[in-house]
Specification:
Helix content is 45%, strand content 14%. It has 465 residues and is α/β, with parallel strands linked by helices. Helix 1 packs antiparallel against helix 3. The protein starts with a strand and ends with a strand.
Length: 465
């Protein structure tokens, strides 16, 4: 299997012969994004000043001055040669902004934001050549220029030629950027916040089409969470028999657990005489949108957007039922939604104050928008760059944001190009176990405190209620 490692922060010695270096494109994108945000803020402040009650009060006292100030502010937020139709904020500002969106009157901030996204997409195409293929470029160009019908035609032709999975894999490096561009350039003013949050490298709290608050999903995922002891089946037993303190073996166990509600708690008598615990959390079941376990699609979206979910509550119940002593050292390894949940638990003050969470290892998980309560927690993120899922946190290959210096992010590109194969835990275990990457040894060197005798492997079945 041919595997290519990807190291963040390494600048190539020379630019590619066919275009500008990707790092320069990203640097220009950051500058444009900052300028766009500054222009947007200026429009909001001018709108607030012009519509302030203080201006009304001064108008009574100094009508000439107030009239001139209002005219100047109105000119500043409507001048096509300046900020454009930049009014925003407050009842008046939002009404004007909404009318401008419907009329497709785009302020300077939006124009600069579009250019920033376009540079991100161009930079991503340097490392993902399929984005530069004619049909894919036709799609991205159509989205950048706001030609939605042309974009739909190009997307349909891509699906006809490559199928859904290959098309999704092709555009996945810039999927968030394409959704943000659509939000900026359509006539719907309610979904603009999705684009602005994406521009800053954050995780949007609204949906990209209608602008509905993402927090609404919590009402679809309201369970208190519950955990019950379960028995290992024959396949899981075989995998556990050859398991040890090794990242590939941990992923193998997660594969054997499946994604139908099981998790596993391991107790280890470590070589230094300390008893420690390892918690293994599988990812999402794609069979149904929602089911009786926390490992469903609703739970996945909830986990990306929030930290208190049915999955985290079920795991907290698991640790309580298992009788894990307070102060015990704990490592959590999770794939996909399991990795998201591991990070959500690291964000939970109750967990980090009850147990000593030492490591969080995520496999193919979108976790870059989350930060542990205890900065001493060692976060290790394993990412196949062909995998669509890790980019759902808003930090895809085209994002200018980065993770904290204390985190360890190990990324690569292998032959499992298409989603969902590129996301499967078996694919991650296969690549890490192939010997072509140094990542397995590096991760194992970081978790040697958990070397020792495995004294218990207890599966638990998790439920929403």
């Amino acid at each position: 299997m041919a595997v290519q490692t990807v190291d963040a922060g390494v600048i190539p010695e020379s630019a590619p012969a066919d275009g500008t270096d990707a790092d320069l494109l990203m640097a220009a994108s950051v500058l444009l994004a900052d300028a766009a945000l500054a222009a947007r803020q200026a429009g909001a402040e001018l709108t607030a000043a012009a519509s302030s009650w203080r201006v009304g009060l001064q108008a009574v006292r100094h009508p000439g001055w107030a009239f001139g100030a209002a005219l100047s502010a109105a000119h500043a937020v409507t001048n096509p040669a300046g900020l454009g139709l930049a009014a925003s904020g407050g009842i008046v500002g939002e009404a004007v902004r909404s009318l401008g969106a419907v009329a497709r009157r785009r302020p300077a901030s939006v124009v600069m934001a579009v250019d920033a996204f376009a540079l991100r997409i161009e930079a991503a195409a340097r490392d993902h050549p399929n984005l530069a293929e004619p049909l894919a470029k036709r799609l991205t160009d159509a989205v950048i220029t706001g030609r939605r019908l042309e974009a739909l035609r190009a997307a349909r032709e891509l699906v006809d030629l490559f199928g859904v999975t290959r098309t999704l894999t092709t555009v996945s490096p810039v999927l968030m950027e394409l959704l943000a561009l659509n939000g900026l350039l359509d006539e719907n003013p309610t979904n603009d916040s999705f684009a602005w949050v994406t521009l800053t490298g954050g995780v949007p709290d609204t949906d990209p089409v209608f602008g509905l608050p993402a927090g609404l999903i919590k009402y679809l995922n309201p369970g208190p969470g519950r955990a019950e002891r379960a028995e290992a089946d024959a396949m899981l037993t075989r995998v556990l028999d050859r398991s040890g303190n090794d990242i590939v073996r941990y992923i193998d166990v997660i594969s054997a657990l499946g994604n139908h509600g099981l998790a596993l708690l391991r107790r280890i008598d470590c070589t230094d005489g300390v008893q420690r615990h390892v918690l293994l959390l599988p990812g999402t079941s794609f069979g149904r949108v929602t089911n009786s376990t926390p490992q469903d699609l609703v739970g996945a979206f909830d986990g990306v957007l929030r930290t208190d979910t049915t999955y985290t509550r079920a795991v907290k119940n698991l640790l309580l039922r298992a009788g894990v002593p307070e102060g015990s050292e704990l490592m959590i390894v999770g794939h996909s939604l399991g990795g998201i949940t591991a990070m959500n638990l690291a964000c939970d003050l109750d967990i980090v104050s009850t147990y000593r969470l030492t490591h969080v290892i995520t496999v193919g998980s979108p976790i870059d928008n989350k930060r542990p309560v205890d900065p001493a927690v060692q976060v290790i993120s394993l990412v196949n760059n062909h995998d669509v899922i890790p980019g759902l946190d808003g930090r895809g290959p085209a994002s200018a944001s980065d993770v904290p210096d204390s985190w360890i992010e190990l990324a690569w590109e292998d032959e499992t190009y298409d989603y969902p194969l590129s996301h499967a835990p078996q694919a991650y275990a296969g690549t890490l176990g192939s010997g072509e990457l140094p990542h397995r040894a590096r991760v194992n060197a970081l978790i040697t405190a958990y070397d020792g005798e495995i004294v218990a492997n207890q599966p638990y079945r998790l439920f929403d209620k």
